[in-house]
Amino acid sequence: THTHTHTPTIHTRTYQSYRYDLQKMLRSATQDFFFDFVGSNSGPTSPEDGDMEHEGYAGITIDETQNRLAERLREYKPDVVLLHLGTNDLGHQWDATHNNVTHSIKEIRQMIDTIRTHEDMRFGKLFVAEIIRSFKPLRKNDYEFSVFVKDGVYHPLHSDLKAFNAAIVSYTKKLNAQQQQQQQQQQQQQQQQQQQQQQHESGSSHNMPQTTEPMAMAFPISTVDMYNTLTQDEDMRDSLHPSCSGEAKMAKAWFDAMRSSEWWQVMARRSL
Question: Could you tell me the pTM of the whole model?
């Protein structure tokens, strides 16, 4: 089984992406199926040879990613999407008529919907991160401001990050509950159709009610708590980006979520 991961992340010459550690974990965890990172961007995951494709772009926002998302899903047809997005949106300055937290929550919900209902993700798996802490405050009172500037860069408030992450968790729980109910209804409809078909001597399903409502992904959405994964100063190399130790912690969080998911178990059984 070829399993593709669609991973928003960037790499610099000094700091490798979490994808490098994640790739090593995936390769050592199983011989049953093969993982191949995919995406329109390319760059080395580390000084060593590694899988180079990804869909991470520096400074990108949710709406910019959303604009290209459907096209990327059609092109690469990933089995797995790892989504960590929103830091740049929460740090942006909006005009007085916008609340950046509310607006960003609306956009991330739209993105989740796009992924979960896309035809090429029908049997895919989506992991959505509760995004990482974004800065070390200069002063204690900096926590009181919605946005503060350090070195010309806007940084989101921790309360905004928490509100954004809480909205992700709440929305995915709602979608998973709806999905479970929909699956149960479709199973009942299928059972009824089978019973009705058995009553027809011809075996024809003509004039029998059919299930026409399209289903979203077969697997529930998983959230991954990156906010509480990177908690130490040494986890960040600057006010916005993880250090090597932070990237390693992110890789472990992604891997643990993947390894414990129902999706992984199904893929392992299919490879037998």
Answer: 0.80
